[in-house]
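Handover notes (outgoing to incoming on-call)

Open items:
1. Molybdopterin molybdenumtransferase: sequence verified, structure written out, both below. Nothing else pending on this one.
2. Nothing else urgent.
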Amino acid sequence: MEHYHTGELLSLKEALNIIFTLTTPMAEKEIIPLTESINRITATEIISPINVPPFDNSAMDGYAIRFNDWHDATPLVIAGKALAGSPFREPLPAKSCIRIMTGAPIPIDVDTVIMQENTLLANNAISFTQPIKPGTNIRFTGEDIRQGDSVLPIGTKLSATQVSLIASLGISEIEVFRQLKVAIFSTGDELQTIGQPLAAGQIYDTNRLAIRLMLEKMNCQVIDLDIIADDPDKLYQAFKQADQQADLVISSGGVSVGEADYTKQILDEIGSINFWQLAIKPGKPFAFGKLKSAWFCGLPGNTVSAIVTFYQLVQPIINHLCAFTQWQSTPYLKARATSLIKTSPGRLEFQRGIAKVNTQGDLEVTPMAQQGSHILSSFNQSNCFIVLAQNRGQVNAGELVDIEYFNYLLISE
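Molybdopterin molybdenumtransferase structure tokens:
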């Protein structure tokens, strides 16, 4: 396989183009109960087997009439009642009406429903307090969906409303692409499992937790291989195990230029690296390649860098591999900076910021005070990335910048 890692840093756009060129969306499918399909990706087009609604029905509680029976102020005698699930089945007598409830089938020959608030009842007959129009307050057969209509395309990630829509068609099982299997592990002798006491020089392994939580939000099947020590043999075995079990392998740490970073050496032995470093900040040491079977993403060790590269690179990779064709990245918006934004040209930069609409109705953004790649707390109050172009220098208060609002991966739903 061709190697792309050269002395020149790749742009984010170039890296994504390489990824999408090399990778192929999943083809494996399975049939599952509709009740278990939330957040799954449709593998076939959803075609409606029925009309929705399946029959003409009342949109209101009121009275169903033949419009031509209404002349002047002559009251109409109530001939019966129609309820949802209990229709009025007889022909409607002349000069009469039917008491009808919302959702009830429209009786034969009836063409108009008058809401009860616009009627007067006296001696089992009704008259109308407002002018009436023919055809009002009826939901017609197939008004929502016609039998044979395409309801959802292939590659749709199913939301609660979409699952409910499919249920309204009477479909109880659905064909979806299988879940992506993603193996994750962290590397580094300095890492300690959360909940255990820290020894001298140790830090907690927060990267793997953050990655796992984002993967679970993306409905991936996560294979957690824990912390792998900075030992070539243990790393080699971890990569071999991950490659055998997963479609995608994500490691955290071990992709910089430190003397104890063995990942490059191992990948050259059992796979290939397509690129290693990117012209983005934070997240320069991001690696992408192929093991024997699985694709590989190597995330930086700093937590902010790991989250940014997951969001900007791994998220689109996973959506592509999962055949989620309806996915789109959050569009950039223009916002006015409320304060000085320090930056240096050379890399596309993603700073954390707080965007809001001011009292004048304009979108503005305030950068977080600390932007270091180790400052995880910068995500606590921020709701967007301030996206600074590769050739952009310092931004003064009042200047326009691009922002990218966080999606569901980084904010609570």
